[in-house]
Design brief:
homodimer, alpha/beta, Aminopeptidase, Alpha-Beta Plaits, 3 domains, six-stranded mixed beta sheet, 14 helices, 19 strands, 35% helix, 21% strand, metal ion binding (chains A, B), Cyt/Met_Dipeptidase (chains A, B), peptidase activity (chains A, B)
């Protein structure tokens, strides 16, 4: 592997250029921007480095599917996405969100960490490996979707109509971080997600607020309905919500105990003096990894501009995401939410639910996972940090767990990568490191 | 007065042109638009029709002050404002909000009803009267402020430094409507107002919503805080809020019984099937006129655009107005609100309060009010409808009640004038009617 690593170092500038070019495409799926550009750009890169590459249509944005067939016995797949989150609030960025500027070894760009950096690192690894050895030691598939940031709403349909393309012995999941001490984070599971909008409606248009005395206010309806969903101790009050949430196993508890979590750094970075409910230690980690959430992502009603407009809002909307743990079923949660609202006198509140995804987890003892652990050790010289459950979400259940495919995720982010937030970034050094890890994983698995 | 009425009819087109020209100035005080243009436009019109006219500076927008001195013994003042509400939501307008289009005898424009139509009717009346008789039979003052739509925040200071200009035997208040049966509405009081923003703050920027498990969510904090302010039966829960709210007197109850309120038409217009709490009859009218309110005018937090951004908001803001009844003191309410939030564990919620105004009311038996009633009868041939309390607000207490000046309001709106809402409008016929009433009032009072 020394030859491959040397090749990677020698082509550092080119690999950085590839990544910046990709990052500059503003592929914001939820706003339908840059989708065609990003997918065709990827397709031509896959072809350029010797793979097949197809743009496979879905009801939404297409999946870019690429194969590097070596004739080997093993097949691994890489799951990634070419879409990114919206870039607002703009005023908080230190540079243009899609300029892909490099400042002090840091590439700052929407999508750099989530997850264009990780995807490009894998592509560069394939390139370097085949340039040095002529061919790969196993078969590789890339499944790169364009709707992860809006809940992978069409991936299930894709999986159903392309089940042959999904098959693999191991799936390398989209992302992960490099810890401050240089060790890799390996992710073995992911929470599920359900995203809903709650909508309250009153009169047929906004009215003068003097009518607040006698006309129902959509904003108040929404506030009262939201208030019934979660109490101030963070208990979700929807009947049945916790029924499928399992207690921690002994093995999971032990793994949590071993897992480092940089509490002080995180608080400082977020400008906070405490975590929710004053949590710390294992209770904090358990909440983050193994407890479901109910999060208001946005609320919008009435006049929100400057100054004081005295208006009675006719509409109020809240966007809410639920992060789900294994065995919670998003469709069941929607049903429970409807029942809860009805039971509490909020039959008038409309629910618009997106198709969710279930949580998934892989056994850290799986032999192929063990090989990835070996590769991570070889590249970094350090024991990787195992994260049993990613507190974010992804379609791991649909793509892997339902077919019994084990998954492990790693990538090129850092503990301050600001995913989904202004000034998203990765370190160039972590990017180079991630290319080497992807190459080493291919080598070890073969 | 026949000569004056004939003169008014003969100059109808000119008076409509004056109004449309004024309406086309987008004098949105809360957004600092069109203020200088509107105030200087008014100043030159006052001068053109024979008055003095000064633009008197305040810390905020200036007051346009005009006098028509006749040497008569009585002095009346007109209180109006040249500012208007913001025009959004734009997509709900049938024409440009400031184009001042006339469709089927209706002038549609932001500010037409509130209250440029009423102000112009008074100015036209002065013009017609002086053109016919050479001079007015009493002294007239116009106090036209530019910040009514943002709570008359600097009017108190103006009143303090120009107390001579405020003195009058009777103040004609800004506005009122012409009922569907052609009778005038005369307003004898107005609710007070307090406008506040509540602001919840969490981390130093919006975060990926996976952090919802462990980081405080500003939107949830705000929802929980708001929920403590009012229950679902519309009871405001702020301790002491109702302490100064008086029971209805017998006279008030009788007046309420006599007062018509078009329940069915109002419901149909707003697209509703019932009023708040299923109220109707005298209970509905009492709530509208004599009960204080707590109304969410707007809420803003996190991502409110299209699609599903999974974000944990770092800020959440609510705009709230309280409509106050006689003896409630806005400064006291702010204090009670702070105490309430603190007592309920919301010390972290910031309150930004604007200077409010107190409610005011005038005795319908006052001799000068009786003369206005006579004038209204003469113009319309019908008994005017007395509204003891305007459910909207205005600085009537500061400008009049604190000096013992009685007030009565009338104007050119209609029961579907859509003040503060899209498609604000007045009927041209009501405008003409309003010019005649203003002229008749001057005549009767002298």
């Amino acid at each position: 592997m020394d030859l491959v690593n040397r090749y990677i170092e020698e082509h550092k500038d080119m690999y950085i250029d590839w990544l910046r070019e990709f990052c500059r495409i503003p592929s914001v799926s939820t706003q339908n921007r840059g989708i065609q550009e990003a997918s065709t750009w990827l397709q031509s890169l896959f072809k350029q480095i010797g793979g097949t590459a197809d743009i496979l249509e879905t009801t939404g944005h297409p999946v870019v599917y690429s194969e590097f067939f070596s004739g080997g016995k093993k097949t691994i797949s890489f799951y990634n996405h070419y879409d990114v989150q919206p870039e607002d609030p703009l005023e908080q960025w230190v540079c243009e969100p899609f300029a892909a500027e490099i400042q002090e070894d840091k590439l700052i760009c929407r999508g750099a960490a989530d997850n264009k950096g990780a995807l490009m690192a894998r592509i560069c690894a394939i390139h370097a490996y085949t340039q040095v050895y002529g061919r790969l030691p196993l078969n590789v598939k890339f499944i790169v979707e364009g709707e992860e940031e809006r809940g992978s709403v069409n991936l299930s349909d894709f999986i159903e109509s392309h089940s042959d393309k999904v098959k693999a012995d191991l799936c390398i999941w989209e992302n992960g971080i490099v810890n401050p001490d240089g060790s890799f984070e390996l992710k073995l599971g992911t929470k599920g997600i359900l995203y809903v909008e709650l909508i309250a409606s009153g009169a047929n248009s906004d009215l003068h607020s003097l009518n607040g005395a006698i006309v129902e206010n959509a904003a108040w309806r929404l506030v009262w309905a939201l208030n019934t969903l979660k109490d101030r101790d963070e208990n979700v009050l929807i009947g049945g919500f916790y029924d499928r949430v399992a207690n921690l196993s002994d093995a999971e508890r032990k793994a949590l105990e071993k897992m480092a979590y940089p509490e002080a750094e995180t608080l400082e970075r977020y400008g906070l003096d405490r975590f929710l409910l004053n949590l710390s230690g294992i209770a904090l980690k358990e909440k983050l990894l193994f407890q479901p959430t109910c999060t208001i992502c946005g609320i919008d009603s009435g006049y929100i501009g400057e100054g004081s407009k005295t208006v009675l809002p006719s509409k109020a909307r809240a966007k809410i995401d639920f992060r789900l743990v294994p065995d919670q079923d998003p469709e069941e949660i929607v049903r429970l939410l409807r029942e809860h609202l009805d039971r509490n006198g909020f039959e008038d509140i409309e629910i618009r639910a997106r198709k969710g995804s279930r949580a998934a987890k892989t056994d850290p003892g799986h032999p192929l996972v063990q090989k990835v652990i070996q590769a991570a050790k070889k590249v970094s010289g350090k024991e990787p940090q195992m994260v049993l459950m990613n507190p974010g979400s992804g379609p791991m259940y649909q793509l892997c767990q339902q077919f019994g495919i084990p998954t492990v995720g790693f990538g090129v982010g850092n503990s301050d990568s600001r995913k989904h937030a202004p000034n998203e970034n990765i370190f160039i050094s972590d990017y180079m490191y991630g290319i080497k890890l992807a190459a080493m994983v291919i080598h070890e698995l073969a």
